[in-house]
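Protein data sheet
==================
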Amino acid sequence: MPGPLDELLGRSPLRDPARGRRAGDIAALVRTTLRIPEDIAITVQQLSCREPGCPPVETVIAVLGTPSRRWTIHRRIAEIDDAAVVGVLANDPAHDHDSMETT
C-alpha cells in the first residue's frame, strides 16, 4: 500500500497526471506574471489537512527565491483558474506567510 512519501514522490497509483500538468501551468503563470527568472524554483502543491479548523484541501504556491514568497488558495489545483492565480498575485505580490482564501 502506498504511503504519503510515495504520493509526494509521484510513485502512487492514485497520482493524477492532469493535476501535475495544471500545477506546471500555474507555476508558469506565476513565473510570467511576477517576471521570475528561470533559475528561481516555483512549486505548486495540493495539500490535505485533517487538523481541526483547517480547510480540507489547499493549494500552496511558493517562489523559492530570496526572499521566498508563498500563497495559499483553499481549493484543489484542478479548481483554480488562471484568473484566481493572477488575482491572488496582483492583490499581494510579495506575500510571504498568511493564507489567502479565494472563492
Residues 30 and 89 are 8 Å apart (CA to CA). The two ends are 35 Å apart (CA to CA). The chain has three helices and three strands. The chain has a mean pLDDT of 81.
